[in-house]
Amino acid sequence: MSPELHRGLDSWSLPIPVTIVLIVVALVYLRGWYQLRNSLPDVLPAWRLGAFMAGLFSLWAAVGSPVAVLDHQLLTLHMVQHLLLMTVAAPLILMGIALRPLPRCPPVHWIGRIVTHPVFCWLASTAAVIGWHIPALFALGMRSEGWHAIEHASFLAAGLLFWWPVIQPWPSLANWPRWGIPLYLFLAALPCDALSAFLTFCNRVVYPHYLSTHRLFDISPLGDQECAGALMWVWVTFAYLAPATVVTMQMLSPHKRASKLEVA
Asked: What span, in angstroms and rounded, lies between the C-alpha atoms of 130 and 118?
């Protein structure tokens, strides 16, 4: 183990407040899941419980594990944090939750329809990804623990919004055609691909913070940035285009086509 990695791991301590909050959320969810399970066994299968708990663990891994300390030494690990929050924790949490119906209040329904519309979700997620990778905002998050926490929260919130139209948590109903989801995912991958390509091929260190940190694994700042860009490129491509392929195959399956013909 390199001395820099050893010092980084020694500086890590279990974040008690974050861990306690996530444990409480897990216990509250588990209690509610068992209560609803008795009355709605077909709506809340065991895989939803597993998905939600895995989402909480992914959230903890991003903000509470040693990755949260070493992200100041490696941009690649900083990128891992963002990807865990947006493409792992957020969709797993949405897959596990069951929503209560909104109050019968027109303004509430109107706001809900806006913030869960694919256009709004796409804009919010893209703004979070691009915005926090602007060097000035990135440096702000590196200098301040408070802004770093806001950065993490915004990535998680953007991830929840982004995956909402794709997963459609029960019992909410989509107000847009299902064929739009593959297009939505494809368009969402484009700004991420552009950003990752820039980080990989720009041939200069974009974030000065990593020029002055202790190096881990004998990787140069530019090599670290290229690795982070490549990781984002590959990860996002699979995370977005894999579900797009699944949705497309579902829409083109003979069973789906037969059901539409029967309805017609």
From this structure: 18
| Coil/strand/helix, residue 98 | strand
DSSP H helices in 64-179: 67-70, 75-84, 90-96, 106-115, 118-132, 135-143, 145-167
pLDDT (tens digit per residue) in 32-85: 888 877 777 666 788 888 999 999 999 999 998 888 888 888 999 999 999 999
Residue showing tokens 């940190």: 213
Residues in the chain: 264
- Kindly tell me the burial class for residue 101, based on how many C-beta atoms sit within 10 Å of its own C-beta (0-12, 13-18, 19 or more): exposed
Q: Which two tokens stand for residue 152?
A: 């993490």
Residue 170, strand partner residues: 98
CA–CA distance, 211 with 74 (Å, rounded to integer)? 10
CB count within 10 Å of CB 237 equals 14
| CA–CA distances in Å: residue 240 to residues 186, 206, 259 | 7, 26, 27
The whole-model pTM stands at 0.86
- The residues with which 98 forms a beta bridge, in sequence order, are 170
Closest Cα partner for 24 from 68, 72, 63, 60?
Answer: 60
Helices and strands, counts by H and E, the chain = 13, 0
Tokens 């020694």: give the residue: 10
Residue 67, token pair as written in the block:
């990755």
